[in-house]
Amino acid sequence: MPATSWGYRAAVRLGATLASAIGMVDRKVRDGDRGRRGAADRLAAWSAERRDSTRPLAWFHAASVGEGLQAESVLQEFHRLAPDCQLVYTHFSPSAEPLARRLAVDTADYLPYDLPGSADRVLAALRPDLLVFVKLDLWPELATRATRSGATVAMVAATVSEGSGRLGWPARALARAGYEAVAAAGAIAESDAIRLSRLGVRPERIRVVGDPRFDSVAARVAAVAPDDPLLRYGRSAPTLVAGSTWPPDERVLLQAFARVRSQVPEARLIVVPHEPTIEHLAALDRRAVEAGLAPPVRLSSADGPAPLLVVDRVGVLATLYGAGAMAYVGGGFGRAGLHSVLEPAAWGVPVIFGPRWRNSRDAGLLLEGGAARALGEGTHAAGTLAEIWVRWLSEERERMEAGGRARDIVVRGLGAARRSAEMLATVTSSRPPRT
Question: Are 123 and 272 in the same domain?
Fold first, then answer.
């Protein structure tokens, strides 16, 4: 059976040590480090009290919120197929805690650091029949030791971008044993299947089943009530909702909005920062004034729509996209990486994003389908955004048709969650529960 190398274990130990050091000055890193270091104890304590040895157990792991949303739809479908199965969910990022708390699972927690002692302890406590990694967040130590313990290791929503660092040296060599342990992998597309095999998954164990995030996003949008109070912040005037923004996005957005307001005074902008910290919000206020705009109104103190509304809470973006006539998705400037474009697409609104989108398959689908526009690099980005913005406000039919194409793309992607769950059920159905 495959096993990790001393080089991999040394790299993980070094990473854990560095996380503790960086956590002294970075709150998010500190929260994650603390969560991971106590996770093995908490999972073992849950198992001692709640693990039913007469029932099988499936353990799903997803790194952060985006991967967690992909996992959520598969979890729901898998539970329908295997209602007697206990479900455990782990994550790596602190940002995934709110999502983890609302998932319909038996317990949820951080994933411990991928070290031999921690992996063995959690595997011995949980005794999983199935270990599922979502997207690409596969941890080799856990995967190889799970296989040796008798569990089936699988992947769902498996995607490997062309520029993934895992394909290069030395990452591919260090992680290969983990991918060799995978018994079944549900890839999003044929190109992902090819790259998964390069990482070490045996080709005959890979199936192309699509992306379950389409199912998750469509379900979330369908669950929003037509009279949800958040929708009133944008629907009474032409509004652009900018989601998951970072400072490089906001500089372009605010400059563009100042130009748009000079031509369309009733235009509105809702900005939803990816990390609405006090420092981030204060800097955003300053940049708005520097752009010649009135100070933003915070959602927490707003009593109604405002020309420039800044959202100072998390967990509301998927709903707020429904309040917009169009959407901007952040992360396409700088190094953050483009965030999900599917939420606004599911609402049937056209999407705009920055130039660094090529690692996002979904962004490519929207561009190819005429449902989105990408901005270029450089000083002209704000001007280009303003031009698109004004055009979509003045040419309602063009905007509505682009939004319709966006929704159609989401609809065509539905069904992957069910196919992924069926794959998982197939590879585990012949096994008795572990005792």
Answer: no
pLDDT digits 0-9 by tens, 348-363: 999 999 999 988 999 9
What phi and psi values does residue 228 have, to the nearest 5 degrees?
A: -55, 130
Task: Compute the distance between CA of residue 381 and CA of residue 387 in angstroms, rounded to an integer.
Answer: 10
**Contact between residue 75 and residue 151 where contact means Cβ atoms under 8 Å apart:** no
CA–CA separation, 421 vs 80, rounded Å? 9
111 DSSP assignment: P
Number of folded domains that form the chain: 2
Question: What does the alpha-carbon distance between residue 405 and residue 350 come to, in Å, rounded to a whole number?
Answer: 8
User: 265: which 2 tokens?
Assistant: 């005074």
- 123: CATH: 3.40.50.11720
Instruction: Please tell me whether residues 252 and 383 are part of one structural domain.
Output: yes
Query: Which residues lie closer than 8 Å to 275 by C-beta, 6 or more apart?
Result: none
Strand partners, 207: 186
Residue 1 domain flag: no
Residue ranges making up the domain that contains 424:
6-212+415-428
- Dihedrals φ, ψ of 39, to 5°? -65, -40
pTM, two decimals, is 0.90
Q: What is the largest CA-CA distance in the chain?
A: 70
Quote the pLDDT of residue 105. 97
- Neighbouring C-beta atoms of residue 434, cutoff 10 Å: 15
The reply to whether 149 and 252 lie within a common domain is no
pLDDT tens by residue, 266-287: 999 999 999 899 999 999 999 9
Q: Cβ(339)–Cβ(244) under 8 Å? A: yes
196, amino acid identity: L
310 and 363 assigned to the same domain: yes
Question: What is the 8-class DSSP label of residue 158?
Answer: E
Please provide the size of the chain in residues.
Answer: 435
